[in-house]
Amino acid sequence: MENVIDAKEYNEFLEAIRFVYGYDFTDYAESTVKRRIFHFMTGRKIEDINTLGKILLREEAVFEEFVKELSVTVTEMFRDPLFYKSIREKVIKRLATYPFIRVWIAGCATGEEVYSIAILLKEEGLLERSIIYATDINPASLESAKQGVYALSAMKIYTSNYQLAGGKREFSEYYRAKYDSALFDASLKQNVVFSSHNLAMDKSFNEFHLILCRNVLMYFNQRLQDRVLELFYDSLCPFGFLGLGDKESLLFSNKKDQFEETDRKQKIYIKTK
């Protein structure tokens, strides 16, 4: 499928997007980007990447749809519940020692992870003195995250995840059902700041006690992974925690010696240097 897009045309396409819109996809995993470009072209019956480029540079609304296609992630509340259980058991105790807690959820997508962490902090009595920065490259995803409305049909699996993650209440207490949707309690997002942030280009904007960036680095090449991990290192306070996805690791990072494993299996690290 990648053979459909010529290498020279592909590079020129990405450079044009970076020049006009400031979005840099050049260090994203090439196979993933090409696959999603092809999917976008197929769905809109666009025959070649040059035609696609002209449309995107001319029509900003279509470009927003394109960004959504490129940055789509599969997510759910309390996804990989044992990760959240480990946060509850191995990270929360140290976070509780701070008078004020700053959490950054980088690549928050449509917000399921944001509400998961908010619920966890609430149950541990820490939400009121926490601020959660939820960032993503995709404006449409951020808007969905702000709304906090999810399919009611997903609540069964979310409830199961929550219970396996060590949830202390009835999960249904956190949302109310309306038609086919579940609207999550507004109190969960009172201390959340939703904001656009491009991991490929933007800099650190605060110092954090916990950074979660799960199942995002896997879409980047090694160079961009190194850049992002450098960004996270610079953004963490001493002995701050970093949580990655189950297919991600610090193993090949030049920052690996600055972290120690808090939970090897769940990919939770603490900054030690």
Automatic annotation (TrEMBL):
Residue ranges constituting the CheR-type methyltransferase domain according to the UniProt record: 1-260
An MF annotation (GO) of this entry: S-adenosylmethionine-dependent methyltransferase activity
SUPFAM superfamilies given in the database record: Chemotaxis receptor methyltransferase CheR, N-terminal domain (SSF47757), S-adenosyl-L-methionine-dependent methyltransferases (SSF53335)
Pfam families named among the record's database cross-references: CheR, CheR_N
Record-linked PROSITE patterns: CHER
Keywords: Methyltransferase, Transferase
Superkingdom as given in the UniProt entry: Bacteria
UniProt-recorded name of the protein: Chemotaxis protein methyltransferase CheR
